[in-house]
Amino acid sequence: MDAAASNPATVPEQRSGSASDLVVLGLGYVGLPLAAEAVSAGLKVTGFDVSARVVDGLNNAVSHIDDLSSEDVNTMLDKGFSATTDPACLATARTIVICVPTPLSPEGGPDLGAVTSASKAVAAHMSPGTLVILESTTYPGTTEEVVRPLLEESGLVAGSDFRLAFSPERIDPGNQTFGVANTPKVVGGLTEECGEAAAAFYENFVNTVVRTRGTREAEMAKLLENTYRHVNIALVNEMAVFCQELGVDLWDSISAAATKPFGFQAFYPGPGVGGHCIPIDPNYLSYKVKTLGYPFRFVELAQEINGRMPSYVTQRAQELLNDSGLALSRSKVLLLGVTYKADIADQRESPARPVARKLAAKGATLTYHDPHVESWEVDGVNVPRSTDLEQALAEADLTVLLTDHGEYRPKLLNEYARLLLDTRGVLRRPDPDEAAEVPAQFRRRADREGIQVL
Ligand SMILES: NC(=O)c1ccc[n+]([C@@H]2O[C@H](COP(=O)([O-])OP(=O)(O)OC[C@H]3O[C@@H](n4cnc5c(N)ncnc54)[C@H](O)[C@@H]3O)[C@@H](O)[C@H]2O)c1
Predict the structure, then answer these.
(1) Which domain holds residue 167?
(2) Which keywords fit this entry according to its UniProt record (predicted)?
(3) Residue 189 placed within a domain
């Protein structure tokens, strides 16, 4: 048992007259929705961010993330929210939640630079009795081994002078069903009392709080969730490649398997994995496992398979053109959707970029269509945007659908695209315009030549 856990002393209550119930550090995809939910639960919330652009935008009611509109930010401001670049706001916060980015370093390992600088800012200002929670995704041990010593540079001791916990963020950008309030919140405290305090804080605005034994278990829960997705996506991606050669329609097989009411969860092939979590978080776990002297083989294999998908998409695109007597180097290729997932504007780690890079390297003339992205550069080169979808489909020699935005309807694609490679299985879904189920023969085979699903 560590020193804090063995210390039975109760953490002192913070002095009254706090300026904020909550200060959120890092006002991005994770921090801002959290702040919004806390504001609507009646908490007095201040947002701290090192970016003056983000802070100025928010104080002028301009949202910079998909899940909150500028109107939502305006409502937050009306209810007392304010954003600042001044860390002095940390001095009077009852609870501080750290939601800063945890990207990969150029060597592919964890880059905890933002977490350490946020922790130092907290240490320089926090008062006794504060509850500090880390939400940034990271490897197991970070809260205790990295954050705790930095916070204790304040002279305050974790578990006795202030409370410390880890709670992974599970936000799914663009998800209309599950948000902060109705997604169960996993919480792990440094001590029993730290865990209780963190759970009580989240219960202000989250319906279900799930406690883990400690901070490491909460850190690991997040990495397990994301590694599970990464590995299962790699499984179907690898199967998609050989099913094509075997003449098996994998999409049909997945639909059939998904009818099993237990023991199976459907994952679907695609052009690669994107977003801020799936391609990055498992690296944190494999970094930690490597410190034990051996690799995390499932993650490495999944990375290899998912990382090869953009090359596979390029190869399929080339073959599809070839079947029609066209060379990729002399073809106009339209990329449909360049964000990492449907119906949001987030382009982080989107596989569209490596696909575009590979197609351009083979001489294709590229354009893109994406209702959420006004301009798009790949390696500093501007890719022309098409805004008229029907015209763009009709003019391109080949369309490669990379992101299944809602407006990419099967009927429209079928009618207008000359050649189409659908990497998301849009053609395997019922067309919302046609209400009826997609007929079985349509599910099994594309309805005309020149249309293929990955
Ligand atoms: N985006 C997601 O869907 C998602 C989901 C689950 C978990 N996460 C994790 O949550 C964390 C935050 O991700 P995000 O998507 O919100 O990032 P983001 O890039 O959208 O926002 C992070 C914000 O933190 C600010 N920042 C950077 N350093 C700072 C510092 N030292 N002090 C204060 N502010 C600072 C940045 O200016 C930025 O506004 C990451 O660890 C990420 O892995 C993200």
Answers:
(1) 3-213
(2) NAD, Oxidoreductase
(3) yes
| Alpha-carbon Rg for the chain in angstroms | 24
Task: Provide the token pair at 99.
Answer: 């939601």
Give mean pLDDT, residues 227-250. Answer: 96
pTM of the model: 0.88
Q: So which residues are the catalytic ones?
A: 277
Both 363 and 268 in one domain: the answer is: yes
pLDDT digits over 375-408, tens only?
999 999 999 999 999 999 999 999 999 999 999 9
Q: What is the DSSP string of 175-225?
A: -SS--TTTS-EEEEESSHHHHHHHHHHHTTT-S-EEE-SSHHHHHHHHHHH
Find the helix or strand (DSSP H, E) in which 398 lies.
strand 398-401
Closest atom, ligand 1, to C-alpha of 29: 16
Going from the C-alpha of 52 to that of each of 86, 102, 132, 187, 355, the distances in angstroms are 10, 20, 23, 31, 34
Q: How far is the CA of 137 from the centre of ligand 1 (A)?
A: 9
Largest CA distance in the chain: 78
Is residue 328, in this structure, part of any structural domain at all? yes
Closest CA to 14 of 193, 194, 162: 162
The CATH number of whichever domain residue 125 belongs to comes to 3.40.50.720
- How far is ligand 1, taken at its centre, from the CA of residue 363, in Å? 37
The DSSP string of 159-176 is TTTBEEEE------TT-S
What is the b/e burial string over 139-152, where b = at least 16 CB atoms within 10 angstroms of the residue's CB? bbebbbebbbebbb
Please tell me whether residue 158 adopts helix, strand or coil conformation: strand
Q: Is 297 exposed, middle or buried (0-12, 13-18, 19+ CB in 10 A)?
A: exposed
| 119 C-alpha to ligand 1 centroid (Å) | 14
The 10s digit of each residue's pLDDT in 322-371 is 999 999 999 999 999 999 999 999 999 999 999 999 999 999 999 999 99
Ligand 1 site residues (CB inside 6 A) read: 25-31, 48-51, 54, 99-102, 114, 117-118, 136-137, 169, 171, 173, 276-277
Residue 219 in any domain: the answer is: no
* Three-state DSSP class for residue 313: helix
173 Cα–ligand 1 center, Å: 13
List Cα–Cα distances, 334 to 351, 408, 409, in angstroms: 15, 13, 16
Domain edge (last residue) among 213, 244, 277: 213
Could you write out the DSSP letters of every residue in 222-263? HHHHHHHHHHHHHHHHHHHHHHHHHT--HHHHHHHHTT-SSS
Mutational test site, ligand 1, from 27, 30, 89, max ligand atoms within 8 Å of CB: 30
- Ligand 1 binding pocket mutation candidate from 25, 32, 34, 49 (most atoms within 8 A of CB): 49
